[in-house]
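Appendix B. Raw example, untouched.
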Amino acid sequence: MTPQEIKKKRRTLDYSQKLMAENLDIHQNALQKMEYGTRTVPQYIGNYASCLTLLNENKLLQKHIDQKRIEMMTPKELKDIRESFDFRQKLMAEILGIHPNALKRMEYGTSPVPKYIGNHASSLTILNENRLLRKHIAQLGIELG
C-alpha cells in the first residue's frame, strides 16, 4: 500500500491520524511517517486498513470497535477463527499480511498473538458473518485457490 492509499483510507473513514493509529494499534508517529512516505506501509497495516474501510462502507465499523479486545487473543482463539473459515495457515497469513511461519508460531503459542492481529482476525469474523469476507479477500488481490 502506498502512502497516498493509507492516507486516503484514513480520510475515507473521516479519522484523525491519532484515531486511525489507535484503530490500527500502532503509534501515531508511525502512521504519520507512513503517510509522508518516510516509512514503508507494512502489509499487515495495509490489509487491516482495507478491512476497516470495508467495515465502514457496510456500516459495521462500530460493531468492530465495540468488539475490539483489550486483552490479547489466545492461540486457540486465533486458530479457531482460521478453522471456522476453513482456511489453511498460508491463506490466513496472507489475509492478515504476515508470514505463514509467524501465524504458525502464534497458533502454537510459541509467539504471542499481537493485539492488532487479534483485532484484525476478529474483524474478519464480522466480515464473514455479513458475507463480505470474500469481497475483502478479492480487494486484497488474494485468490482463493
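End of appendix B.
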